[in-house]
Design a protein that fits this description.
Elements lengths: L6 H12 L8 H7 L6 E6 L6 H4 L7 E6 L8 H11 L3 E7 L9 H11 L4 H6 L9 H14 L5 H5 L1 E6 L6 E3 L3
Parallel strand pairs: 1-2, 1-3, 3-4
Antiparallel strand pairs: 4-5
Length: 179
C-alpha cells in the first residue's frame, strides 16, 4: 500500500517545480498584456477526482474556479459577490459530480461527532442548519441555483446566465441539467 503524501512531501515537490515555474501575470498586468479577465465562474466540489482544470481543459485565465465540499454556492456567496465587483462575470457554471462524498454527509451524524469532539461547543454546533450533504445530485444543483436567485445582491443577468451540470467521474462527461 502506498504511503500517504505529507505536507513536507508537497513542499519538497514545490521546490523542484518552482525551478521551471512560468510566472503568472498580476491582475494589474492583464490589460497591458491583452489578456481578458475570466468571465466564467465555476463552482464545483473540492473532491480531487473533480478537477475542472482537467475535465474542462482550462487554460490560463479562462475561468475563475471556486471549490468546496459538495460544490455548493451558499458557502461561496460572499466570495462570488466580492469577485464579481472586480471581474463582472458573464456566466456561472455549477458542477456537481457522481459518487460525491456529500452523499456520505449526514447532518445529524456530523453534529454528533462534533459534539463528541468539542462538547464545550454543543450550542455552536446546533446553530448550523446544514453541513451541505447531498441526497439527490440534480436537485442539489437546482437548490444552488435557487440560492443565487434568492439573493437580492446577485445581478439578475448573472443569475439568468447560470447553468448547472453533472460530471461523471467514470466517463469524464459533463452533462447539462435542464432547469
Amino acid at each position: 500500500m502506498a504511503t500517504p503524501t505529507t505536507i513536507d512531501d508537497l513542499v519538497e515537490r514545490n521546490k523542484e517545480l518552482a525551478k521551471s515555474y512560468t510566472p503568472r501575470p498580476f491582475f494589474t498586468e492583464f490589460a497591458a498584456m491583452g489578456i481578458p479577465m475570466p468571465k466564467i465562474l465555476i463552482v464545483t466540489c473540492a473532491d480531487p477526482r473533480c478537477v475542472p482544470e482537467s475535465f474542462l481543459g482550462l487554460k490560463g485565465a479562462e475561468a475563475a474556479v471556486f471549490r468546496n465540499v459538495c460544490g455548493h454556492v451558499g458557502p461561496e456567496m460572499h466570495h462570488i459577490l466580492a469577485l464579481d465587483t472586480i471581474i463582472n462575470f458573464d456566466e456561472i457554471m455549477i458542477v456537481h459530480h457522481n459518487d460525491c462524498g456529500g452523499f456520505l454527509i449526514n447532518d445529524e451524524q456530523v453534529r454528533k461527532v462534533l459534539k463528541e469532539r468539542v462538547p464545550e461547543h454543543t450550542a455552536e454546533v446546533d446553530k448550523f442548519a446544514t453541513f451541505g450533504g447531498i441526497t439527490d445530485l440534480e436537485q442539489s444543483i437546482r437548490d444552488d441555483i435557487a440560492v443565487l436567485k434568492a439573493s437580492p445582491l446577485m445581478r439578475k443577468d448573472l443569475v439568468n446566465a447560470t447553468r448547472g451540470f453533472t460530471f461523471d467521474i467514470k466517463t469524464g462527461m459533463l452533462n447539462p441539467l435542464d432547469i
